[in-house]
Amino acid sequence: MKKIFIALLAALAASACLPVLQSRFVTREDVSVIPKEDPIWQVRRGRKDPCNEWASYLPDTNHLDHTPLRHVRVNVHWMNTPDTAYQLHGRRAIDFTKGLLHAVNYDLIKNRKMWLPNGNDTPVYPTNYRCVLTPDPDIPGDEGIYFHYDPELTYYVHKGKNRNLYRREVFDKYGVQLDSVLNIFIMPHHPDSVASPTYGAYGVGVALGNAIKISGIYTNVKEHGDYWNFRGVFNHEVGHIYGLSHAWVNDGCDDTPLHNKECFSRGQSARCDTMTSNNVMDYAAVQHAWTPCQVGRVQKRMAQERNRARNFLLPTWCELKDSMEIVIRDTVEWNGARDLEGHLTIAPGGQLTIRCRVSIPPDGAITVQPGGTLLLDGARLHNDCGKQWQGIIVQKFANETGKVGYTNEPILENARNGWPAPRP
Questions:
Q1: CA–CA separation, 88 and 23 (whole Å)
Q2: Confidence category of residue 45, pLDDT binned at 50, 70, 90
Q3: What pLDDT, on the 0 to 100 scale, is given for residue 161?
Q4: C-alpha angle 60-62-63 in degrees, rounded to nearest 5
Q5: Which of 2, 172, 267, 273 is the most exposed place for a label (fewest CB within 10 A)?
Q6: DSSP letters of 310-335?
Q7: What letter does residue 276 receive in the DSSP assignment?
Q8: What is the spatial distance between Cα 106 and Cα 116, in angstroms, rounded to a whole number?
Q9: What does the CA dihedral 10, 12, 13, 19 come to, rounded to 10 degrees?
């Protein structure tokens, strides 16, 4: 027994000599100004701020977890006449709505290669967002699907002296959660329009800030699965909400080629086999391709704090999720704003440069482990939900410590343990 006791004492004594991992919130002793000759100082020189470039918002295909999936909240309104002139209503319309959302997200998930220009090598990036049907929490049993029977506001008139595609009365009267949910109104073409031989009662839509009108469903749906035929117009109008322009004109994206819209579908003529577009922002039979520029511009719009369209996003960054921790193990630069949903850790050998706004979830922390490096180049670290996060933790083990460098003093907001004050 005595020998065992002595052995335990010896083990305890030996363990006391081992280095212990130390953690503390960042102090002035832990940070250093990056030398002026370091190339990091050159990134912000000139006219182009990386935080404003669409390319900075493309998902990093080597680190998809660095850009959490965004969810656009939508609800759907079915407009009909008081005598229910259109038979797509009730359970059938509810099933159609859910099928349509499935089809919309299918294309968002499957983003395809561009058809134009013929033989192109335009890369394919994940769109990194989905649309989610969103009920009103104040309405018991609500599914986010509504039916309205109105003698005056039911119809969509696309052309002519009585056109109403830009009028908002139907939104003002029937809109639900317009400040936080993108309202989709499904409206029939006016029967007088349909009766005209020069009027095409096809799928068409218009995006008006916080709501969208879509027409053509009532006229063209025959079978249960016909919702697939309207996923393109749905995604097209949502694209407008998030800053995309029509792809056949000068839309600000070099990877969407100019064309004259001569071809609506492949097989239309021999030349259309190589001249038809499949881009989501074109007018074509198939609209299921987003280019890198379009993906980047949508993600940039979603990350802009003061943009109204950001309000439609499900604020998944307002809750800390341990499963969403991001661990940096190699050299990474974040040149665009982003909203994290978990802790951020820079592991040994990892280096992360932050140049823009980054929202840390409530009670989240940035931890720089021994051998890890955090570089702050014009960074603003905050919590977008107005709640507190922990701050930056620097760890030390033996003679190795986490390193934190900066160009200009970074901004830390809502942090319980803020950026250390400069030395007097």
A1: 62
A2: low
A3: 82
A4: 65
A5: 2
A6: GGGB--GGGS--GGG-EEE-SEEEE-
A7: -
A8: 21
A9: 140
In this structure, what token pair is assigned to residue 332? 């990474």
Task: List the beta strands (DSSP E) in 150-297.
Answer: 182-187, 204-207, 211-215
> Is the distance from CB of 392 to CB of 374 less than 8 angstroms?
yes
Question: Exposed (0-12), middle (13-18) or buried (19+): which is 389, by Cβ within 10 Å?
Answer: buried
Give dist(CA 280, CA 129) in Å, integer: 14
For the chain, the residue count is 424
Sign for the CA dihedral angle at 118, 121, 122, 128 comes to: positive
With 0-12 / 13-18 / 19 or more C-beta atoms within 10 angstroms meaning exposed / middle / buried, residue 366 is buried
What is the C-alpha separation between 313 and 264, in angstroms, rounded? 33
pTM for this prediction: 0.93
Task: Judge whether residue 2 has pLDDT over 90.
Answer: no
- Rounded Cα gap, residues 401 and 406, in angstroms: 16
CA distance 395 to 165: 59
Q: Which of 376, 339, 374 is nearest to 358 (CA)?
A: 339
- Please tell me the predicted confidence (pLDDT) of residue 11: 52
SS3 397: strand
E strand or H helix at 231: helix 231-241
Dist. CA 177–CA 191, nearest whole Å: 30
Here the tokens at position 306 are 């003061």
**Res 198: pLDDT:** 82
Mean pLDDT of 288-313: 98
Question: Does pLDDT of 403 surpass 80?
Answer: yes
Residue 54 CA to residue 242 CA, distance in Å, equals: 13
Q: What is the DSSP string of 4-15?
A: HHHHHHHHHHHH
| Alpha carbons 103 and 230: distance in angstroms, whole number | 8
Best CA proximity match to 263, nearest among 246, 282, 248, 276: 276
Query: Which residue type, as a one-letter code, is found at position 419?
Result: W
- Helix ranges (H only) for 276-395 are 292-303
> How far separated are the first and last CA of the chain, in Å rounded?
59
- What are the tens digits of pLDDT across the range 109-154? 999 999 999 999 999 999 999 999 999 999 999 999 999 999 999 9
Strand partners, 279: 289
Lowest-confidence pick of 42-56, 114-128, 294-308, 315-329: 42-56
